[in-house]
Write a structure and sequence with these properties.
Length: 261
Amino acid sequence: MATRPTVVWLHSLARSGSSITVYAAAAPFSYIVADEVIGPWDRTGPPYRYPKAQRELVELFKASDHKLTDEVVAKTNDLFEQIVGPSGVVISKWPHLRPEPEVFDRAFPNDRRAYLIRNPLHRLNSLYRRGWLKSIGPNHDLLRYKQFAKWWRAQPHRLAFDELRAEPRRFFSKLYRAWGFASDESHIEQAIGYMERNYHASSLEKSKSPNAGLLSEREFALPPEALDAYLGDPFIVEFMTEQGWSTDPADYGGTRAGAIA
């Protein structure tokens, strides 16, 4: 029987910077990234080219009502054994809100994990700008975000995408500690270098000007009712204030608080 690889996880919602985080973090060590192998997509073709076991896992997970049954867990572990490289380490990225942390902990009890979150209005704007309307849940994905934020608050290892951009050294240092990676300044520098050199079409969108910042945080497509829903929700306002994120609608393409339209 093969020895199970060391597996670490990054949990987030979609459009929260999980792709650039895992690929940059893996680069200094040449660790394997398992990019959403549990679904919902068949990724046996390019660019991922996972073995056919990944397609079978996706089908099984869907047939299991997206629950981590014993069979799903066993097939996931088998897949990790198939894709792991010489390092023996797999970084698994899972930007979906299923299942809840307690269920996941029981399914993979020995794996280290970290949780990543992003300013909810920047994240939502990214979904709207890309036209990913099918990915937006009820009430502009507000309920999904609130659930994840509550889970994120309760985790011992939690990070924010905003920190990745503002303080990348601190961000990667925290992430490596969460995953139990032995790292030094050279690893952090390499991770930052990867982040600065690479473009991940599914996670990071830059304008042509390198100093202009992310389009999802500069050009807004949020419907007014989405701003009203988020900035009118006491939990969201408290959470954003707690994280140091602006709650002024003018900072998200809306009308400045208190102003007459």
